[in-house]
Design brief:
The chain has 159 residues and is α+β, with helices and mostly antiparallel strands. Strands 1, 2, 3, 5 and 6 form a five-stranded antiparallel β-sheet that branches. Strand 2 and strand 3 form a beta hairpin. The longest helix is centred in the last third of the chain and has 29 residues. It is globular and about 40 Å long. The model has no long low-confidence stretch (mean pLDDT 95).
């Protein structure tokens, strides 16, 4: 079972590393799949230091983390070219607690993703979704859902 840190490190073994630039933020990975396996999906965006103003996602990419290969790169994303604002920024302490939970749950979710879940797995999935939503805030949450609908549709079917 690979940790979140190990999964993210694979970006730098692919040409997707070129998207990682100073001054821009990289999302957390959202898992999808295709005929070649699991894809960890990311997007790049700009954000102010307070975490209240965001650019639209500037690029999206996917990595076959198990194979260490690029799945896709997309710089033509369908988002309005405007500033996205979070009216109620996330509480830093709550966000850190949620992120710590997310980090621990990610490898477990990766192992059960796109399977029919038993009751314990459904509980883990619900905790994972709750943690992701809590530290992401409303703007990033919207981006995650729009860019990786396959994952969220599966998660919804499991609840």
């Amino acid at each position: 079972m690979k940790s979140l840190k190990e999964i993210k490190a694979v970006i730098f073994k692919t040409d997707c590393k070129d998207f990682i630039c100073e001054g821009l933020c990289c999302s957390e990975p959202i898992i999808t799949k295709d005929e070649n396996g699991l894809i960890d999906n990311y997007f790049i965006y700009a954000c102010d230091s307070k975490g209240t103003k965001f650019s639209k996602p500037l690029a999206a990419f996917g990595v076959y983390s198990d194979a260490g290969k690029t799945a896709y790169k997309n710089v033509s994303l369908d988002f309005a070219d405007k500033e996205y604002c979070a009216n109620n920024p996330t509480n830093d302490e709550e966000a850190l607690t949620a992120y710590d939970s997310y980090v621990g749950l990610y490898p477990q979710i990766r192992d059960l993703v796109y399977k029919d879940c038993d009751e314990f797995q459904k509980k883990l999935l619900a905790e994972y979704i709750s943690a992701l939503k809590a530290f992401s805030g409303p703007v990033l949450w919207e981006f995650y859902n729009k860019l990786s609908p396959m994952f969220f549709e599966w998660a919804c079917q499991q609840s």
